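User: Predict the structure for this protein chain, please.
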Amino acid sequence: MSSAQSLRLEYLHPSESHSEGWHDVLGMAVFEGCADEGNSVEQRGRDSECALPGSGAEVPLAHVHTPVLDEPREVLEVWRTGGRAQRGSHGRVRHALSGGLLFGSLAVREAELAAPAGASPRTPLELATGLAYRQMYASLAAAGNPHLVRIWNYIPDINLDTHGLERYRQFNTARHEASLACGRAVAGKVPAASALGAASSSPLTIYFLASHQAPTFIENPRQTSAYRYPAQYGPRSPAFSRATVLGEGDAATLFISGTASIVGHRTMHAGDVAAQTRETLVNIQALLEEAQRRSRMSALSLEALAYKVYVRDPRELPVIRAQLEAALGSRAALLYLKADVCRSDLSVEIEAAGGRGLRPAD
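Assistant: Here is the predicted structure, written as structure tokens:
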């Protein structure tokens, strides 16, 4: 059995979950309802990696501080397998393992690591990112799951300039250096990933999927590989693939990284959110075609994917939604989240996943 064969994705409200149904859960992320936007992170409770009330087990749970748009309640992103998950922890990482797949999550607050002025050449975010990535790599080594497949990174104030450099670029620098220090690739065979903004007072929050089986790494022929970006985008390039495919045939699962209106390495249609949304879908279609060409994945259509859509300005949601529903149909699986995107001239970013257990319900 392929490690991806039984992987399933669900989006649920906590009230829709049942305690008897958590035995096969690898892990979860929880996204705040829009009614929670006014609450501070401290009021919301623990940062991440905690047991869901009623689950009866320490299910890895990443608490992501990017509100769900047009939805007053929290939404759970639930990753399941066909078998019972073994749960544990390694350092700051809580994880679960089943069928050759591992889900892990962790959160690091920059204030924990801030050194006195002049004591460290690293910024607080660089220190937090370096610690988080070293802990993640150590947990993979301890669990025997060496192949990272997909990473989600949520960075508070991602576009803010501090210490003379945009925080997203600080994150990329620290991710690059921690990966090299741990003997990990920073180009080529690197996982699919997203990096989005989160609330100012939130921690750096990361969750990830890994496997005993190496995925196929997919690049977009319309785009410069992110790890080959020129120096104008920062001292270190982002270290991710445009997509990965885990497994083969009907058992394959496709993970599409955060994708935006970029052709080559340049932003397209700045200031036009409708055109940015359409261009993003063209890029996702190109990734579908390239994934089918490069791997033994069964054919998938745009309509068969499950999407997370990150919207910088909620006032632009109706325009984005109209474009997506026109292209995908009214029954497409779409979760809309309020989040800043890694470039300030990008209004929308879309990630997607597809496979047997990740298709929209009929």
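The longest strand covers residues 147-156.
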